[in-house]
Amino acid sequence: MDRFMAVERALRGAAPHDLLTTARAALRRHYSVTAVELLVADYGMSTLHPVGTPPYTADPVSIHTSAPGRTFGSQQPYIRVAGDSQEVSLHLPVSVRGDRIGVLSLRVPGEHYSPEVLDELGNLAEILGHEIVIAERDTDVYLQARRAERLTLAAEMQWQLLPGRSLTRPEFELGAQLEPAYAIHGDNFDWSTDGDHLTLTVTNGMGEGIEAALLTNLAVNALRNARRAGLDLQDQAYLADQALYQQHRGAAHVSVLLLRFHLATGLMEIVDAGSPRIWRMRNGSVERLEPEAQLPLGMFEDTVYVSQPFRVLPGDRMAFVSDGVYHVSSPAGDHYGDKALARALTSTRLLPPAQVPRAMLTELAGFRGEVEQEDDALVVCMDWHGRRTG
């Protein structure tokens, strides 16, 4: 049997909790690999943690200053050859459709290494990523490894809602991040794509702790239910609004930004039902888009929502931020505001969308200083490429 197919078959047949052990055995047998380590990114996207150790006990690896971190950031293999060429160290990205899971680190004897081997091992790392996503339905091993500290119950509920933290398609690239990662309350994002559309929602639920998490869970699932029923954007907002009102009778509401992108044309429909804001960078110029403000979901019975059309062009970068970003103040009392947001978008213009939210939130933390973060902060970044014709 071909060596690549043999390892692939072993991974696909492995027990959910046993992927790493299976990968080690198969790679040693078929590629003479001498060491195998799987590192997964933590919820804060700042460190990488080895799989296979009890939670919170392993020494983390920095995403910013390590060889595996270099691979995680660039999403390209990083290769180190020993001076005597007796052994080659490989760090390979483990990702699924642009969603960055972690890094597979290997050591291969020099006599068994070649460009062909590198290509095959890179493809196997991608297959491993797909298997991890499937395995997470049945085991906590990989979710536990991602934790630098214990999540609050509210944060646990919020992270379980998310579709991922990045997504890549020929028409667009998406990246998102929530802070504080281990204690988030009501902020969330969701996306879904098919052959013709991308639907994106940015949610900011009122309140704190479990109450905020429960409120956001209801809103996100109500929107998903309406979307999966095939309803248009304004009807998705209407039905979610009714679900929230029926449950809370106006005592609790959710601010939501709903967007639907037509992949073939770049037409963007927007329902702005609350506080999340939209920024666009086009040809190096940053501006805030201001669609008509409508009522947050759940405030009143039978609220009617209207979608507004905008258009995105190839090369546009869009950013969607919650009020936990633009309402932050410095220790001196200075407001973060629109100018600082525009500067942050400009300073991160060379980064891919998957890295922009983390970079912007790091800059925000520096602006806030030692002041305790009082609200969730959410950033979603999208680069629009458009659909190629012909």
Describe this structure in words.
The chain has helices at residues 3-13, 19-31, 67-74, 115-135, 141-145, 153-161, 209-228, 233-248, 323-326, 337-347, 356-368; strands at 35-41, 47-50, 61-62, 78-81, 87-96, 99-109, 166-169, 172-179, 187-193, 197-205, 254-262, 267-273, 277-282, 285-289, 308-311, 317-321, 377-384. It is an alpha+beta fold. It is built from eleven helices and 17 strands. A six-stranded antiparallel sheet has the order 3-2-1-6-5-4, sandwiched between helices. The longest helix is centred in the N-terminal third of the chain and has 21 residues, at 115-135. It is globular and about 70 Å long.
Strand arrangement within the widest β-sheet reads 3-2-1-6-5-4
Radius of gyration: 22 Å
Structural class from helices and strands? alpha+beta
Total helices: the number is: 11
- The first-to-last residue Cα distance is 39 Å
Q: What percentage of residues falls in helices of 4 or more residues?
A: 25-40%
Oligomer classification: single chain
**Arithmetic mean pLDDT:** 93
Protein name: PP2C family protein-serine/threonine phosphatase
Keywords: Hydrolase
Domain PPM-type phosphatase: 169-384
Organism: Streptomyces sodiiphilus
